Amino acid sequence: MKRTKIFADANLTIGKVDANLYGSFLEHLGRAIYEGIYEPGHPAADENGFRRDVLGLIGELNVPIVRYPGGNFLSGYNWRDGVGPRENRPVRLDLAWHTTEPNAFGTDEFIKWCRAAHIEPMLGVNMGTGTVREAAEFVEYCNHAGGTTISDMRRANGAEQPYNVRYWCLGNEMDGPWQIGHLSADEYGKKALEAAKVMRWTNGETDGGAEKGKLRLIVSGSSNHEMKTFPEWDRIVLEHTYEQVDYLSMHRYYEYSEDRADPLEDFLGSADDMHEYINTLKATIEYVRAKLRSERRVKISFDEWNIWTQSAPRREPLWKRAPHLLEDVYTFRDTIVFAGLMNTLLNNCDAVGIGCLAQLVNVIAPIMTEKGGGTLKQATFYPFKYISNAARGETVRTFSDSDKFGSMYGAARCINEAVNFDKTGKTLCVSLCNYAQEAREAELELRSFGDLKATEYIELTNADLGAVNTFESPEAVVPHQRELPAVKEGSRLSLTLPAMSWSFLKFSAK
Ligand code: AHR
Is the pLDDT of residue 208 over 60? Predict the structure, then answer.
């Protein structure tokens, strides 16, 4: 059996993991909202129509922040459509997804839902059909205490206290021709700067900055690194907005199509590709910072990431309400790649301050629901749950002699890992993907953490790469407990990683 050595030392860290790395995303798209988190009349719904069973699963995932209301939907959305008495709210055509939007759920419901879910809201302002004025008024609606027509609208709608929403996206994927109101980098950069400035003024900020109580603004970066405009888009937009924003957003979906007979190696190289993509953006941010002689540190908000088979045909007719759209079913194969993407986010936690798994319920999601019925944990639910609950504190740099395989992204590592140490809780965790077609021995040397004892060891493996969880067979792809390994001298251990697998270990440190 081939052997890979992995070395980590508590003194060599990459950075602190921001809890917001485990964020997610809910868009007015398909059944994410309607029949997903919100289904009045469902036996598990509370008095607001929020499904308690779904809230329970989101709690298991330990998601701290959720981006809303889009996505592509955002670029045609007027926030005013979603507030006030429900019977007066307009029914609109949604040109992003070609559906009908009833506006039965809007900002007030979302904030209420966030409070019920113990989640921080991350709202977006429309930079497609929307104006700078509408963006500022949205901030006024949410954050101004009262005494103005717009803030008093919120109070009349039942929320006496301001929402104090801190995180705001300045539009969505504005580099994409598919976006409603798509702009060039220069046009968007100028508009985003004005929106940012005026949103801050509305929030009572006169000096920019991102200290306590101030808005955290996220400017739209490239939709993916295959865009012809990447990374020029990011450079130009940042040069316009650098002094006003806190994050540059990036998005990336990886996909594997069996129908197209995609080479498996290309898919398995996704985690390494994501790492390269982040590195290019890190460099772009640093370039702009140097050029502008700025002291400000802009971070990355990786606010859409996941596996998504975009080539799947659309089956629902036009203009339906809450149609079954983008309801990808995640395979075991997808899940081991997904775990590698999480490792990459952790290994770049010095630059990535926010991560949003896109999305959370029903739409390319770890949680599925049946109308009037039950819920299902997709296979991807498990790596997210284990990693988000345990990989806190700091990510520790790893050194490994893993061999590589060829993929369309270049050479990718067979063994992909992330090591996290929480000094306060004195816990260590290790996430390991084996992308080789045969079992591997991993020799771990974990130095200076104290006397390590394994407390949990789970493994996700399956003879069938295409295995999926379904409502009929919900546990086809679930992790299994393994016998705890002995740790020699409190720091060295050896593991057998099955072919094509994900393993996760937790240790206590004394
Ligand atoms: O998450 C689905 C869609 O993917 C989002 O609406 C858009 O921002 C991205 O292209």
Answer: no
